[in-house]
Amino acid sequence: MFKLLKYIKPYWKIAALAPFLMAVEVVGDLSQPAIMARIVDEGVARGDLTFVLKYGLLMIGVALGGFLGGGGCSAASSVTAVNFAADLRFQLYKKIQKFSFAGLDRFKTESLLTRLTNDVTQIQNIVMISLRMLVRAPLLCLGSLFMILVLNIKMAVILIIALPFLFLTVFFIIRKGLPLFNLVQQKLDRVNGVMRENLGGVRVVKAFVRAEREKKRFAVANDEQVQVNMKAARLMILLQPVIMTIMNLCMVAVLWFGGRQVAGGTLMIGEVMALINYFTRILFSFVMVTFILMGASRAKVSADRINEVLAARVEIVDTPGASGEPVKKGSIVFDNVTFHYHGIDAKPALNNITFSVEPGEVVAILGATGSGKSTLVNLIPRLYDVTGGKILLDGRDIKSIQLRVLRDGISVMLQNSLLFTGSVKENIRWGKPGAPDEEVIAAAKAAQAHDFIMKLPQGYDTQLGQKGVNLSGGQKQRLSIARAIIKKPPVLILDDSTSAVDQKTEYLIRTSLQKLLKDTTCFIIAQRISAVMDAARIIVLEDGKIAGIGNHDKLLQTNPVYQDIYRSQLGKEGVANG
What we know:
Elements: H1 12-46, H2 49-98, H3 101-106, H4 109-151, H5 156-200, H6 202-207, H7 211-264, H8 269-311, E1 332-339, E2 350-357, E3 362-367, H9 373-378, E4 388-393, E5 396-397, H10 403-408, E6 410-413, E7 422-423, H11 424-428, H12 437-446, H13 450-454, E8 463-464, H14 473-485, E9 491-495, H15 503-516, E10 521-525, E11 537-542, E12 545-550, H16 552-558, H17 560-570, H18 572-577
Parallel strand pairs: 3-10, 3-11, 6-9, 9-10
Antiparallel strand pairs: 1-2, 1-4, 4-5, 7-8, 11-12
């Protein structure tokens, strides 16, 4: 957890102010029993009202000073902790943004959400508590011990007997609690995972009338989290009666031995009252330290989870001396490319892939599910890095190009047509921030989206819900295409981009793209063979290998894999006619 304390550095001045202000409060707390003892033993005992009023006002003044110190400490610690947490959360978010697809595969989305929210909050709470209680408790304990020694050194023997029992209790509970706190966070990950999956697929759940099943799934995950939390809570509950028992026994001992000394004339009643106050403060400070240690145990689990993300290696980074020269032409060469997914020891997802694409060429990629189509195009913008071989873009190894420059020269529409909360216009401008309205409309028209946009309540200013929930699948795909093509990139990748539109609209989109992006190298992945028949070249993939390359006519005559796909979609007579 100490690794994370560097994020407090920008706020060290206000953080340092918190202990100082807490010391003011502690001094006030320690002074009050001594003042009260003098009031009882000297003022009340002698019936001196002036003395009582004088020291009573002093006691009020000291209490007020302590109150101001405590309030100031709370404000300083809160400001420090909140800013610390904000910076830590931002750094964590920045690190996640740097992850490649492989890095995102390693950490589940629900786990990252928990780390960004609940785990950071746990660290924030322990920082806030530490700047208050972790300063207050030792000062209060040491100060009270000093005052006990000043008043009556014999009473310190009671503490010497009591403290070992307190230490053993705390050690036992922390040792048992640490693995439980780790399990609590894991179960919270599970709850978030089920909830995220259910909310994301709520329409499918309703369509298949599976609400009851999903309720049971959530109930199981929620109950598991509750049970682990209850185990952790029972440990915390066990702590309180043990501490209270030891504290009460100490009070009995003080009253017993103090009463005997009062009877013997070696101790005064006011001093006994002060001793009881100081003993109470020592034990109370010990309770505070105990709860801090329990909180720190839980925070350590959260800190380890956060550090795991912060320390994770970012697999895809700029190589030393990477070029910042923009991508211009869009020629691409796959040179004996092989790719393995991380942690999978089976055969490679892509094996010995070799082909070249000229600038402005339209290349279609066809193959069965799992043949490696999406994997292949994801390698071009380095969403994953090749395991073997290399990819050349404009004659340069893509690893020698700065990531920002490389990806700026490539527009990608992935299989999932994800839209963001905001207007239609803002979603299209994601592809080119600051694009004028004319370019936005031109891109929408090319994607065959303009007509349905104009039918929306506010046209291009219509606000979309999260992930574009108020649009159909085909409408979301067309907006995603418009977003991809608006900047007219040298390289365009469309991964199954028209699966939700009809064949007529698909044809119109292809025709518009050919006119608008005639100089753009285009990779098209499609499930329908009708979407790729007019491509200059078609690459047929099977089990991660190239099973054939050529145009439609050539493959239809010579390639069995292509023939099977064609036959399955258009029938036997289609092959015969071809």
